[in-house]
Design goal:
about 550 residues, single chain, disordered N terminus, five-stranded antiparallel β-sheet, four-stranded antiparallel β-sheet, mainly beta, 7 helices
Length: about 550
């Protein structure tokens, strides 16, 4: 295996002495300046949208090279009128470990019952834009390039009502402009507000309804016209013919044909795998490919998803998080046409049996070049213990380290942050202090967000890349990256989306382990570019912008 050249340091962590610096350290609001708290609008009747938010994001909105933070809040809707106005929050990174609230100045306060956020440069002007999903009106914020944003939702043709959750920017037709896929959840609204209740000790109490009581809805695909406007194009395709209850989505090329496919997690109905056949054609293949249902054929409550090459065989594997008693599934990609569930082999199934998963991400937290995994958990219903005392509302995070053979649960060695119980929902990864070690941001339902600083593997080296497409989409979504350090070769695909309701640092961090130099770097840019460029000298332990066409073909 390619991984044999780098030793594991997990054993050292397992034996870490009490008082040692934790792998991940929680940064309190008093230190970060992030004082915003999510309002879940919880009511006695327990309306379902109260339980699903919030999403969160790392975003360099002002292009100063430092990751800022965006947090999504609820707001007025047909069942909730806040006493005082609620706002989303944009915090500017002060480059010293603290953040300053610039929400009002930037013009991104929201004003709807927000769910999540998807961030990318859809108009190729060099500045990241934001699409905010919601129960109600979604919002497209165009970045003006001066620290402010403009709501261009109607002008751009992306006004969506209903209940949207996760979304992803990706270039499905390889024309150089990022398109937008938006997950649609269930039919819900005036006249469809089901209330569910049980009795306990002779008293009636309301709880959140199980989603199988509601009708599914089709998700939305919006084609980027290249002029600042979008056109709905899912109608007449398998995307429209497959109504679901979509909560999570990742765009990834599962069969290595150069076209980005979509893996969609659905709640109480089967998951979807939309294979991109080109020329606007989509084929839903989840059941045939083995990722639609659980091991015994049962539909599950899918929430968060992600994709990465976990085993280093150059095929993109898939992960989906489910609700308690269902376990999460890690699907190994077998040649692009079939997947097999290996979650039991990696200990993921056992560790998640009683948990409910939302935000999650494959990332190389220890900079050894291997793909690790973090999971954010929490049951959607705060009254669950009245019906199932073995299940908890607040649940701990989980951290899995890739030792070159399997994922190992090292949560008990990860620090006090992994001992806390959270009402976690969205999760984003990003390097907010620019030390190359990917940090974590977690949105918590009805509570303050959690910011975790990564302290792992201080002796490991890295290369940070900001890809800048010229012929292809400017964000370089869909690029293939290969590199060698110390004679050990690795590769990675630039996927889009992943997690739940959240958006990540767009930069790629390549872990070199203890190798202090990079042998070479190769980038295969996505179509319509056909460039494959090799770089013999790339700075180590810092971030570098790589512009398409600047290397040696």
């Amino acid at each position: 295996m390619l991984w044999a050249g780098l030793p594991s340091i997990a054993a050292g962590w397992a034996a870490a002495a009490p008082g040692a610096v934790p792998l991940f350290e929680e940064i309190p609001p008093t230190a970060s300046g992030i004082t915003w708290t999510h309002e879940n609008a919880r009511s006695p009747g327990r309306f379902l949208p109260e339980s699903l938010g919030p999403g969160c994001a790392f975003v360099d909105f002002d292009n100063d090279g430092w990751m800022d933070v965006y947090l999504v809040n609820s707001g007025p809707c047909d069942f909730f009128q806040p006493v005082k106005p609620l706002k989303n929050a944009l915090y500017k990174n002060n480059r010293d470990g603290t953040f300053t609230d610039v929400t009002d100045k930037a013009g991104v306060a929201g004003g709807t019952f927000g769910m999540g956020v998807a961030i990318a440069d859809y108009n190729n002007d060099g500045f990241p834009d934001m699409f905010v999903t919601a129960y109600g009106r979604s919002i497209l914020y165009r970045n003006n390039g001066d620290g402010t944003f403009t709501d261009v939702t109607e002008k751009a043709g992306v006004s969506l009502q209903g209940w949207t959750t996760s979304a992803v920017w990706f270039d499905y037709d390889n024309d150089g402009f990022l398109d937008l896929f938006v997950c649609s959840y269930i039919e819900y609204g005036v006249g469809k507000h089901l209330l569910c209740a049980d009795k306990k000790d002779g008293r009636l109490y309301y709880h959140y309804c199980i989603p199988h009581l509601f009708n599914p809805t089709p998700s939305v695909l919006l084609h980027n016209n290249g002029d600042g406007t979008f056109t709905r194009v899912e109608r007449g395709t398998d995307i429209a013919r497959a109504p679901g209850k979509a909560l999570g989505v990742v765009a990834t090329d599962v069969n290595n044909d150069g076209r980005m496919d979509l893996f969609v997690a659905n709640d109480t109905v089967q998951n979807f795998l939309f294979m991109n056949r080109g020329k606007g054609r989509w084929e839903e293949k989840a059941l045939v490919n083995g990722v639609a249902v659980g091991p015994s054929g049962q539909v599950r409550s899918g929430m968060g998803v992600d994709s990465a090459d976990v085993d280093g065989d150059s095929w993109q594997d898939l992960l989906v998080a489910n609700i308690d008693h269902e376990s999460f599934s890690l699907y190994r990609n077998i040649g692009g046409d079939f997947f097999t569930d290996v979650s039991f082999d990696h200990g993921v199934a056992a560790a998640t049996r009683m948990l409910s998963g939302w935000g999650l991400k494959f990332f190389d937290f220890d900079l050894d070049g291997r793909v690790d995994l973090i999971l954010a958990n929490g049951h959607p219903d705060d009254t669950i213990a009245l019906r199932a005392p073995e299940v908890k509302y607040r649940e701990p995070l989980l951290l899995f380290q890739n030792d070159g053979r399997r994922l190992r649960n090292i949560s008990q060695q990860a620090g006090p942050a992994f001992e806390k119980a959270l009402s976690a929902r969205g999760l984003a990864v990003g390097d907010f202090d620019n030390d190359g070690r990917l940090d974590v941001l977690i949105g918590c339902n009805g509570e303050a967000p959690v910011l975790l600083r990564n302290n792992a593997a201080a002796d490991h080296h890295w290369v940070g890349l900001k890809l800048q497409g010229v012929t292809c989409n400017r964000d370089g979504v869909g690029a293939r990256i290969a590199w060698s350090a110390g004679g050990v070769q690795r590769s990675r695909s630039r996927t889009a989306g992943g997690s739940y309701l959240s958006s990540h640092d767009p930069r790629e961090v390549l872990g070199l382990g203890r190798s202090a130099t990079l042998d070479w770097l190769e980038i295969k840019w996505p179509l319509p570019s056909r460039r494959i460029e090799r770089f013999a000298s790339v700075p180590v332990d810092r971030y570098t912008t790589i512009v398409e066409g600047s290397g040696r073909a």
